[in-house]
Design goal:
Layout (H helix, E strand, L loop, with lengths): L14 E11 L3 E10 L36 H16 L20 E9 L6 H4 L7 E6 L19 E2 L4 E9 L6 H4 E5 L5 H10 L9 H11 L7 E4 L7 E5 L5 E7 L23 E3 L24 E3 L8 H11 L6 E3 L6 E5 L12 E9 L13 E9 L2 E7 L16 E6 L26 E4 L20 H7 L15 H4 L3 E3 L17 E7 L9 H6 L5 E4 L1
Parallel strand pairs: 3-6, 10-11, 11-12, 12-13, 17-18, 18-19, 19-20, 21-22
Antiparallel strand pairs: 1-2, 1-4, 2-3, 4-7, 5-6, 8-9, 8-21, 9-10, 14-15, 15-16, 16-17
Length: 558
Amino acid sequence: MRSSRTYDGGSKERTFYAKLDNISSNKSGYTITFSAINALSKGFWQDENHEPQSAFAIHKSNDPHIVLDDISLGIDEIESNVGEYWESIFNPEEDSPVFGSENDPFKRFSTCSISIFFSKDHLPQYFLNDDNRYRKWYLIKLGQTLQGNQEINQPGTATSVWQYPCSPINSYLLYANYQGQNTRELYTIKSFDINSQMDKTLEAVCGTKNWKISSVSEIKKEISTSLDTEKFEQLICFNVGQGTCIGLADKDGKVLMYSDFGCGIIPNAKTTPKKLRYCTDEHPIVILSHWHRDHWQGAYRLAGRAICESTWILPPVPNSLDFGKSQLVALLGSQKQGRVFLLAPRTSLSASIGINQQPIPNLPNRTQKLHIEPCNGSLSGNPNECGIALLIEDVESQTSKQWILPGDASYTSFINPLPNSQVTAVVAAHHGGIINPGQYPQRPTTVNQTSYARLLFSFGGDNSYGIPKDKDQNGNTSRQNYQAAGWKFVSGWPAVIPSASKTGTDVLSTAEYHTRNKPHRPSENPLVHIAASWDNGIKPSDTHLRTCFKGLKYKILR
């Protein structure tokens, strides 16, 4: 384990409130990752010497008998204070706390990521069998050997520090039952019972009950009005490392909308390009597929900060929502430009695109629709399976084509509203990693197998998850599953980055994959992005992107 912080040995200094964020596995064992907040963060205390008081305080000032699994303020007072804070974020007045300022309660929190590796024989079964494992709050205490645990580090597991706008994020990587280590020396974990006083308190402080659900008509109007004169002509998977950032762009590469706005994060932060850039000058709408950090962390990068002033459409709130994700909503809601829309669970909608676009000479008239489809996973379950999927439909002369953007969700987690539409592009679910078994999108077929189709993989080179070479419960890799659905791969993939147009195959990827647990930055000489189109006579270019990425060496494989 490595950490950028030094503790004084006190047990309270190493105590965290946390929610389960992710469970990943490989042939060696399981990695359980928590999003956590230090239980001694100043924002949890009233402060007689600091005005205004923290809106998220749960303890009275200087309470000498405080214990970190209890509160000393009443739940009604806590809920009232939190409600007032979120009201000030979404409906600000002159004296409202400014997000990121000294008066903002998020400024007084210290958040972190805690990952614990278990060998297959030692994983506590409640992490797999408890249906409420993502809903529960946990109290985690890191042990006295915290600073002396470096000798059991393995290649590729070094951690690093990354930034929120308000506080540093530290990452802790612990090994349980490995090389004779005493688990209790490393950490202890207990969960709070659902609906217990502490559970209700931490849920209240996250503030999600104060977020307004947006109506379908509001969201449809926002999309159609913002995109009334232009259509999507290319889908670009930008190389952001082990993350997802998909630009839906015009024929010149100007991004009109983003599906996710992520980048590589710990333990795969090294996969993020050093000279990361985003196309944000037109303030494109962002539609977030689900709440995992590698799909929105770009908003906190200096290169992507301008996207916070855009309109964001957020997926349903899962029961796994934690302080870090609440902070994202506060950041977006506090902007003077842009709006924040929150989808209700099980919401499906369709919005027309480019209804006022001028006809293009010598080409047939076309119509486009954007479809938002809800995933059917439980809000208390795997966060990958309870977000949304996007489908873009293009209709020309009675011929319907579609792009499928599932986020990290399995294809069986949402209903495709376009069963008779020809698939021309698919962004591989979960970066090409493990998803629930079931029907994969079928490649369109003709007699001579020449119809246009692209399958795009966005992953980081040699990432720690083993994507895309990890195997599902049937022992198949994603390549094998997609090949069974008719998709054509180049020989040697994923150890090579193919150009589909030159190789006569369907597959494009942002990185190579050789071996697990050696995440590395992609080559930026040039940096490789990948893209698909409709193959309808409009030849896409990157004219606009050359302005956004001025001075950078890059290429777009098609």
